[in-house]
Amino acid sequence: MPPLPPNPGQTTPAQAHRLARTGAAVLLDVRERGEFTAGHAPGALHLPLIALAAREPLPPEADGLLVLAICHSGNRSGRAAQLLAERGVEVLNVVGGMAAWERAGLPVTTPGGSSGGGSGSSSSDGGGSSRGAGGAI
User: Fold this and answer.
1) Please, are residues 128 and 40 in contact by the beta-carbon 8 Å criterion?
2) Distances, alpha carbon 51 to alpha carbons 84, 90, 103, in Å
3) Which long-range contacts (CB under 8 A, 24 or more apart) does 27-30 make?
4) Phi, psi torsion values for 87, nearest 5 degrees
5) 48 burial class (0-12, 13-18, 19+ CB within 10 angstroms)?
6) In the chain, at which residue ranges do the beta strands (DSSP E only) sit?
7) Catalytic residue, candidates 16, 47, 71, 84
8) N or C: which end of the chain has fewer CB within 10 A?
9) In Å, how far from its chain's centre is CA 10?
């Protein structure tokens, strides 16, 4: 009988935010480009699930770090986490995705540069740029 594929763990949006802020992990947004551009976690790298499924490499910024896979609701990122675990990457799925991230009031970078939480407040994060946003695919 062949070995079972690795079963990646899960984390909450709040835990993912803390890990990414400390530099212990990197957020990997696996949504499509339009979804990512509309609003993503600050500092998140972007590599759509379809690119991961096609075996595209992770962005270099993720090398050696715990990867926190995130999508809109947690479904695509769960699949991405499975694919990455099969590659030997240390990965966790962010349960509930960006929907849960926003409900938790965590910051979101939008095209205008706002980085407010789900409460409707916003602040600037320096123009809306995010590490790896354009070159990962």
Assistant:
1) no
2) 12, 18, 28
3) 27/68, 27/70, 27/94, 28/58, 28/59, 28/62, 28/67, 28/68, 28/69, 28/70, 28/80, 29/70, 29/71, 29/98, 30/69, 30/70, 30/71, 30/76, 30/77, 30/80
4) -85, -5
5) buried
6) 9-11, 25-29, 45-46, 66-70, 91-94
7) 71
8) N
9) 13
Q: In this structure, what DSSP letter does residue 129 have?
A: -
- Tens digits of pLDDT across the chain (137 residues): 566 566 789 999 999 999 999 999 999 999 999 999 999 999 999 999 999 999 999 999 999 999 999 999 999 999 999 999 999 999 999 999 999 999 999 999 998 766 665 443 333 333 333 333 333 33
Nearest Cα to 37, choosing from 113, 116, 124?
113
- Report the 10 Å Cβ neighbour count for 110: 15
